[in-house]
Amino acid sequence: MNAIGIPLKEPSVAATAADAEQLERAMIDASTRVPVLVFYTSAIAWLIIGTILAGLVSFKLHSPDLLSGVSFLTWGRLRPAHMNIMVYGWASMAGIGTAIWIMARLCRTVLRYPLLLVAGSGFWNLGVLLGAGAILFGDSTGYQWLEFPRYAAIILFVAYSVVASWAVLMFRHRRGEQIYITQWYLLGALLWFPWLYAAGQLMLFVVPVEGVLQSAVAWWYANNLLFLWFGAIGLGVAYYMIPKVIGRPVYSYHLATIGFWTYALFSSWTGMTRLVDGPFPAWMITASIAATILTLIPVATVGLNHHMTMQGYFPLLRYSPTLRFTVFGAMSYTVFSVVGIIISLRSVARYVNFTQVSIGYSHLGLYAFFTMVIFGSMYYIVPRLVGREWRYATLIKLHFWASAYGIGLMILMLLAGGFLQGADMQNPSLPFSESVETVLPYLRGRSLAGVLLAAAHFIFAYHFGLMLLGLGRQSTVPTFLNPVEAEESEPH
Amino acid sequence: MKGLAPLFLGIFGTFAFSWVGLTVIPNWQIGHLNPQSDEEGTDVYPQPQSGMAIRGARLYAANGCVYCHSQQVRPEYIANDIERNWGSRRSAPRDYIFQRPVFLGNMRMGPDLANVGARAPQEQKISASGGGSGSSPGSGQPGSTRVQAQSGPASTAAASPATAGAGSPAATKPAATPAPQTSPSQGPPAVAGGAAQASSPTASPAPWPIRTEGLPPMYSAAWHHVHLYSPRLINPDSNMPAYRFLYEKRRIVGERSEDALQLAAPDAPPEGWEIVPSYDAKCLVAYLMSLNQSHPLKEVRVGAPAAAAAASPAPGGQLPR
Questions:
Q1: In-domain check, residue B135
Q2: Would residue B246 count as lying in a domain?
Q3: Which residue has the higher pLDDT, A481 or A168?
Q4: How far apart are CA A7 and CA B243, in angstroms?
């Protein structure tokens, strides 16, 4: 125990755990080592590539003549390439890596045939590489988040089937009766994704629906990918990491149950809010807006649950990198949802539709929420896989602050700039070009925020590289962000 | 939570609910719309796109135009899309039945393009209800009087025999009163005598600091090529990227090529050289020229003054603001 009376090492379970349990965990960690590290390494490589593309996209938006002469560097190709690399390369692969590890831990089963998963990640990488290359060479389908042409999509789907069927198999071999909250979310995500992906591909490319319904399907897909795939993984991981790090059970199981089912029910209906006032039957859009408003229920229950779990343990944010990233992500989830509700209301949507607000909203969900949670889980999991602790607390701190300030500034710029852009666009006395002029300074600010994020990613990639090479600290104590006073008071 | 069955059922159930609700049921409702036509079965709208336009749509997707340009006009009681002259009426599902993919878009860093083809100068306009300009079966029908209603400066009597030649009595009336013709290359076709009856608020000159001198008439195919090749030659404030990789710079052999770009300094090629569009660029422009929702739709009601506009739609030639 330290000065603040809070255990900082393994959670309370560890204190009571028998040696057998410790051994079991070590064996599970060992069995997941190779596949999870392969997924993480690929994810971080894609993160770096995606960051470089993001920089080009952001700068080119306000400096359009930059590198515009080359076909594969034109803005309209770099943007989808960046987006898909971040979505399928970084976020999905990192999410799968974390999901594998947590699933194995929670099912209390060693990972069988880990090489199968390595093959899955190989296929996945191939799919992303082919898809991103196809976009850059002019073979994009033109649907947001589904730009990969069919040949890349099929490879991605095969890779996914390998990973998912394996994860579900692991679930069948689980030990213990209780199914923890995180497992609901992860199982949900793993089962929703293939249906979603298959439905999107089939209804858009194989047996395409007619006319505007293609847009409806595309946005239904994109929003569900955000909520039912990334959102579900992110929430599940937060439900695991927060109690684990502070060593205290989740505040309420009942709240968690309500939160999960209302989340699944309502968030899956929100897709049409990106098409408010579009050429659709009004009921479709109204239903989506209503569902978006109803997502207040899962948001409130999940937020309350996390908050009550953390109650009294907030000082720990000073020390634990995992906790700091995860709590930042969990709080962003609330912000993300509230912003989503506000911008879906018809009276607001008529201003912010067609503006940078939608970009800000996506970054809130994918970065401030999901990516931060995943960073947190990586800070927890990687040391357990490589048997070393993170080498530099300073680098973790730099990573956190660059990420937090970077994404905060970016979202501020996009939301504020977007609202002003929308107000100008809606003002008939101003020419259209005025709305573009208005938003440009904010886009320059966004580029600045992007520089911060890029710095954060390079720092993280370097630190992760050190860990992979076995250059981490050899210690039994995790790397804390700040020196723990407790250690001085403890008898040696 | 105990028991797997409820968990699995719930996971599938919630998803199936959303899938059926947001994709399957709408597919029953609006997934099988047909083109509309008048009683004689003529004046069919919309009509399938031409081969070049279909290829152009693929280029539109490949080069990410959709990330900055929407293609949907919102109703007048919600937004001022119509006031901006982006269309004469709101878009409806039927407008899109032949489009694949559909580029509704959700970003406007550039203006809406749902009716960019309808803004073309008269002689180049591709009828909304037909593939070819003027020669489509519906062009002489009362329902598609768009062709005559609009007589921009660019639509000279000499240039429009193809359209007026349809011979319908309705077509002769506006054609008989063409707007005073100045020089084809001077000024955008904004001041339109024939469109005065339309509900458009102004017939003012270009609202943007747009350069028009020495350039092709606005929204003509040649103009689109210049715009794609060098957006800031036309609008110095534009932040649209240039798509020069769709164009070829080559030495003039013999005579200057017919579709060489009509560029001004500083983007004009050196003496003895010319910039010509590739086949892809031509397809992309063909696609842009095909975007035209000005044909009235039965399910879209328009206001009283706009009703006249619907019969003789406004967007053509009117500069969007």
A1: no
A2: yes
A3: A481
A4: 60
Name the token pair of A392.
């530099």
Cα torsion A355, A356, A361, A362: sign:
positive
Look up the ipTM and state it: 0.89
CA distance A331 to B60: 39
Q: Residue A264 is nearest to which of B14, B109, B320, comparing CB atoms?
A: B14
- Tokens coding B188: 């955008």
pTM greater than the 0.80 cutoff: yes
Q: Given CB atoms, is B35 within the 8 Å cutoff of chain A?
A: no
Number of alpha carbons in the 13 Å side-chain half-sphere of residue A4? 14
The letter for the amino acid at A52 is I
The strand pairing partners of B114, in sequence order, are: none
CA distances from A323 to A84, A286, A329, A475 (A): 28, 38, 10, 20
Closest CA to B233 of B265, B269, B273: B265
Residues of chain A with C-beta less than 8 angstroms from the C-beta of B26: 213, 216, 280-281, 284
Domain that includes residue B235, residue range: 221-279
Contacts by B23-28, CB closer than 8 A, 24 or more apart: B23/A199, B23/A203, B23/A209, B23/A213, B23/A216, B23/A217, B23/A220, B26/A213, B26/A216, B26/A280, B26/A281, B26/A284, B27/A209, B27/A210, B27/A213
> Is residue B240 one of the residues assigned to a domain?
yes
Across the interface, whether the CB atoms of A269 and B30 are under 8 A apart is answered no
B273 at A interface, C-beta within 8 A:
no
For B82-98, the DSSP string reads TTTTS-SS---GGGGTT
> What is the domain count for chain B?
1
Confirm or reject contact between A170 and chain B (CB < 8 A).
no
DSSP characters for B204-233? Answer: -S-SS----TTSPPTTSHHHHHHHHH-HHH
Residue pair A472/A388 in contact by the 8 Å Cβ criterion: yes
B8, B64, B84: residue with CB nearest A79: B64
Contact B91 A279 (CB under 8 A): yes
Q: Is B237 on the interface with A (CB under 8 A)?
A: yes
CB contact under 8 A, B22 and A277: no
Name every residue whose Cβ is closer than 8 Å to that of residue A308 and which is 6 or more positions away in sequence: A251, A252
Closest-CA residue of chain A to B239: A64
Q: For residues A422 and A409, what is the distance between their CA atoms, to the nearest angstrom?
A: 19
Whether residue A434 has pLDDT greater than 50: yes
CB A333 within 8 A of CB A295: no
Contacts of A39 (CB under 8 A, 6+ apart): A93, A94, A96, A97, A100, A117, A121
pLDDT digits (tens, 9 = 90+) for B95-125: 999 998 899 999 999 999 999 999 988 877 7
Q: Alpha carbon of B181 to those of B45, B96, B152, B160: distances in Å? A: 32, 36, 8, 13
Confidence of residue B141 (pLDDT cuts 50, 70, 90): very low
Name which of B98, B207, B242 is nearest A65 (Cβ-Cβ): B242
Cα distance from B17 to chain A (closest Cα, Å)?
Answer: 8
Query: Is residue B137 included in any domain, yes or no?
Result: no
